[in-house]
Amino acid sequence: MRKQLFAFGCLLLLFALAGSLFARSATLPPAGRRIYDMKWLNINRWTCPFYNDGRYAIDITRGTGEAGGCWPAPKKNAYIFGAGLWFGSLKPRGDGKVDTLVTFGYNPNSGGTEMTPTSFLHAPSGAGATEDRIFVYPSDWPPRPRDYFVTEGVPDSLVPTEAFSLQDMWCVYSDGAPENHISPGKPQGIDIYQTIYAWNYPSNQDVFFIIYTVRNAGTDTLKRCFIGAVCDPDVGDASDDMVGTLLDDSVPGVGWVRNVGFVGDNDNRETQGGRWLWEGGTPGVFAYKFLESPRDPEGSQLGMKAFKKFTIDIDPVTDPAQYLTMAGFDYRTGVYAPYDSALDIAPGDKRFVQCSGPFDMAPGQVERLIVACIGAPFGGEGQPWADRFPNGGKDSLVHLARTANAAQFIYDQGWLLPGPPPSPNLTLVPGDNQVRIVWDNLPERTPDRYWEKVASDPQSPGYDPKYMAYDFQGYIVYKSKNGADWQVLGQCDLVDSIKFSYPPGGDSAIADSLWLQATDNGIYYTLVDKKVTNGFTYYYCVAAYDWNYVTTEWDSLHQNPIAWDTLILRSGIVSNNYTVPRWDAPNSVSPVAEVKTVHGAKEGNALACTASVVVPWLVTPDTFELRFLPPGWTGSFTKPRVSYTVTNRRTGEMVVDTTGFDYTITGSGTKTASYVPIFNGEQIKLTLKQAAPTRAFTAAQVSGSYPGDSLRLTASPPQQGWWAYRGSDYRIVWTNMGGYLTAKVYDVTNGGIEVPYSAFGTSGSGPQRADGWCFVNKLFQRPSDTLKASHAHIYVCGGFLGFRLSGDSLASLISAISDGDTWLLTGDRSGGAAPYYNVYDVISTPGFNDTATNRVLNVKVVPNPYIVFIAWEATTEQRRIKFTHLPAQVIDGGLAQRQQLYSRPAFFNLTSY
Questions:
Q1: According to the UniProt entry, where is the signal peptide (predicted)?
Q2: Which residue would you say has higher pLDDT here, 617 or 165?
Q3: DSSP letter assigned to residue 640
Q4: What does residue 616 show for φ and ψ, rounded to 5 degrees?
Q5: Could you tell me if residue 85 is inside a domain?
Q6: Residue 534's CB: how many other CB atoms inside 10 A?
Q7: How far is residue 700's CA from residue 804's CA, in Å, rounded to a whole number?
Q8: How many domains does the chain fold into?
Q9: Residue range(s) defining the domain that contains residue 482
Q10: Do 759 and 905 sit in the same domain of this protein?
Q11: pLDDT of residue 509
Q12: Sheet hosting strand 880-884, strand order edge to edge
């Protein structure tokens, strides 16, 4: 009862304070503050700036600040003007009284913030240290902040060490700078560790997640705390917004949906190109869904305890008014109505705060609020707000409800779900009426994160032995003229006998669908689009897709899968990459890459290596070693794995880790092209055509007393050893080891590397040991590394050399072989020598601008004759002529102005000359 009376007394005081300050304009933070860091969330269909002072969405790069939270990308349709966190508490003072405090990460009344971009510990020393920046995955990850988490003993979990989404973002800020607070407000002593997650898969491309981890960094216990997500939404035109909730509602076709507040457009119609940022389309809704909130003393999550809307004329601008609002009261009247704002009846420039509480926070205590920020369709074009709620129902919110529950599922799974490979890193190279699209092999070398964290762990409820770690299957290349309407430009996939069209009966004309075709056409990493026009913008995206298995039925002990389904997932389509094709400068000298053989057959090689430059500005003056590895056993006699690495000879850095391809050896040989992942701006094409060997050796030379004409060269290579056949020349050096003859075998063609002993056989597991040498009897059995009179052949990497023309055993001829004798075998390369153990140098020469050679200046004026209005001109008042084919530098003689053009088309404004 005493606690209840205390709280009631505090509330009466708050109402008095709030009433006396009703509608007072906010006092802005002191002048001179600057944004210390700003990063854009842009991995999915949301584009939104984040700041390390608690704000997000407001775009301070445009004027005095404009709406920056836009959806669905690439359309710039504004939904959020600004947003952030509110945190309120009753903080005891030294005189026994209590301060009512609210710290805001965004103030809808001013666009400002009371946060400072550093921890509470470091706030007195000021902000601006590089360690206080926003860290973004993957380029700047994991975070490396200041040492506050060591000196203060903050749990390591507050600073992430691994990433979960495709664009994790992390920073820390606090309310520790008194000068940032609107008087008479002051710091509560809190740190906020903020993490952002975002994916671009079809099921979650319209959501980003914010994790607010709040820590009491002070020495006082904060009483009756409230935490809330505040939003100043502008769905296009800000003056006609409406709000609502899915507090605990059943939506037909979805089920129960909880803890959701949303905002939409009253008439569901926006004007393109007007005062407000709107590029077209029917408005949808923006929503907050609470996924996790602070807990009550019994350990249950508090959930959404208030949803309050307000407009600019009644913004709660003082700490007491803001605190009462967060607690669910109308601060003007003192009426407790936590969800009255959900019953919206009139459009306006709305703001809302969605809150959880109350709870207490002892010094060092940590609480979390996790919010899913959602964009979703809602209603038809021009459909009034009221008509979208027939008979008070919420059927039209099915899209929002489905996305909200999908977000809840992602959270419930610990942020880990079966997902597609990550998208590759993309580079666009504009040229003369062409664009080259170049990407890396990141999806191929990245293990599936769901496998790493869940499916591979036998102790995990999600354990699945059928789920593969490396499930990459192929790439699909998209092109768009506007970043919204996409078409398929090309597809490629692994040569692995997995062929499919997905979804079955899919339509290739629906470019933004998950329509895929795996045809075993082989992986490549660059594509040239020649259907472009110089001077116009084109968007490109390369998505990756996979092929995996998920168990659908287990045995009675739940130990072994007995049924499973195929899982095919594709990474999302994003419009972040665009370019404008243009002419190259006539004095530009292109870079060059060439391949030279270091080790390997100079003639009769089954492999041809050719190099070309695909990203000119990345070429450095280095030499790279392309080294092929031993043949890999794939389970087939005729299908070896061809593997290689690429290393920078100057630095020793491995620029392409072990990768390769499978090749099938046929009677006449099948020409297959494969491509090395792009490095140093260069592409290496590997063309392989290797036929089945008909004999292993064409000649033999012997030293010592052994009769060379007794050797049999015509033994047919066994099919069980085709996968390891090299076609190399070999040197056999005989050695007496303690009275027993053995041999050392060297591959002369490939730099004299030693061939290991391996007990090859044609049955059982013997074929797996084909890459080596051994002695066998006349039945090609009983492999050994010690020569005996019963032996009839020496086996070397896929072929036999008979000791006698008859094929019989050595018998008495064994005494003719002595210690130190050397035999030279010439390999049969009529079907092509295999690339195993080959070594090549890729020699790179960068390009440059030739300023020494005199050239006739081939300048063209476009258009000629001059047309009244063309697409290159912004308006009829901005007349421009476009010059092309300019060198890197040119002097305009008439104006005597030196223009630095750097190979770009040059525009000249006719109205300024």
A1: 1-25
A2: 617
A3: P
A4: -55, -40
A5: yes
A6: 17
A7: 13
A8: 5
A9: 426-579
A10: no
A11: 47
A12: 860-862, 880-884, 906-909
